[in-house]
């Protein structure tokens, strides 16, 4: 009688598959939905073939009109508007911090253990982020009239959601040990906030503040297109008058300020954090 060897009972070799059949079906469904969404979007976008074919020639003509750059236009037509842009970004960021701090504290459940207050604070943060800065600018221009005040308030109300959400998340991720120790020692809520939560979220707070100011410098540069003050008003005026050499001067100034803001933020982060 012949003995049965292990090789006879092992059967066919098993094949390894990276995904299960259900996972492969889910991936295929996702790909199919994405392709369908892209095709549907391409159908709804009204692209005029004549304009599309003529775009390189029009772009070349526009660049020729922009050169040489009207450097002489900077002292009278750009400088003051550029300073207003920086003022709008800075004051708007500071105002946003003042308004976002209490909302961010209320949104953190470990700081304010009240679900109703947490939900209300998060609703305010979502409301701030859901409205674009240009829409905020249009609203405040309608209320306060054109000018830097409308731009400052637009930047501030747009930034509340960003600062408050990130600050609230930083508070929720803080270690509970120091707070529990202060609470056991009988420290009041403000003392726990100042000596327990603040030292833990201080680096994140300064990082959020600098990052948001950097973003606001970019956003405030275009608010003038809707009458909210700043360099955008100079850009809109030059474009309406077809003064393309002045448009080039304004665009170069915006680019220079954005690069300078990036350098300033990087150096401040190195010194503060």
Could you characterize the architecture of this molecule?
With 273 residues, the protein is mainly alpha-helical. The protein has a single domain, classed as MetI-like fold (Orthogonal Bundle), CATH 1.10.3720. It has eleven helices and no strands. The protein has helices at 6-9, 21-44, 49-66, 74-107, 115-130, 133-144, 148-172, 176-184, 189-220, 231-240, 244-272. The longest helix is centred in the first third of the chain and has 34 residues, at 74-107. The chain is extended. The termini are far apart. The model has no long low-confidence stretch (mean pLDDT 82).
Architecture blueprint of SSEs:
Elements: H1 6-9, H2 21-44, H3 49-66, H4 74-107, H5 115-130, H6 133-144, H7 148-172, H8 176-184, H9 189-220, H10 231-240, H11 244-272
Helix pairs in contact: 3-11, 4-5, 4-7, 4-9, 4-10, 5-7, 6-7, 7-9, 8-9, 9-11, 10-11
Shape: extended
Radius of gyration: 28 Å
CATH architectural type: Orthogonal Bundle
- Encode the helix/strand succession as letters: HHHHHHHHHHH
Query: Could you tell me how far the N terminus lies from the C terminus, measured between alpha carbons in angstroms?
Result: 81 Å
Helical coverage, percent range: over 70%
Strand content: under 5%
Question: What summary fits the major beta sheet?
Answer: none
